[in-house]
Write a structure and sequence with these properties.
By secondary structure, the chain is mainly beta. It has 1 helix and 6 strands. The chain has one domain. Strands 1, 2, 3 and 4 form a 4-stranded antiparallel β-sheet that branches. A hairpin with a 2-residue loop joins strand 5 and strand 6.
Length: 80
């Protein structure tokens, strides 16, 4: 799998989760974006965050079409 981004800081041991993807409730992290030209239509603020594996946060509908979600600081409740 091609990584979308690289973490700003490499995790060492247990890292407290402070950011979450609001759509899937998985942990998120601020990343240093690897720009390859494929995400030119995405707002720069939305590119700063990704799942821990480097993939963009889940898509959400915005006024500009589908964009990666912005993270939240409290873990969303998972649907059962």
């Amino acid at each position: 799998m091609r990584r979308f981004a690289t973490p700003l800081t490499e995790p060492k041991g247990v890292v407290p989760v402070e950011l979450w993807c609001p759509e899937c409730a998985e942990p998120a992290q601020e990343y240093d974006v690897i720009a390859d030209g494929s995400m030119l239509s995405v707002d720069a603020e939305r590119l700063r965050y990704a799942h821990l594996d480097g993939e963009p946060l889940c898509p959400v509908m915005t006024s500009k079409g589908y964009q990666p979600a912005l993270p939240v600081k409290t873990k969303p409740k998972e649907e059962s």
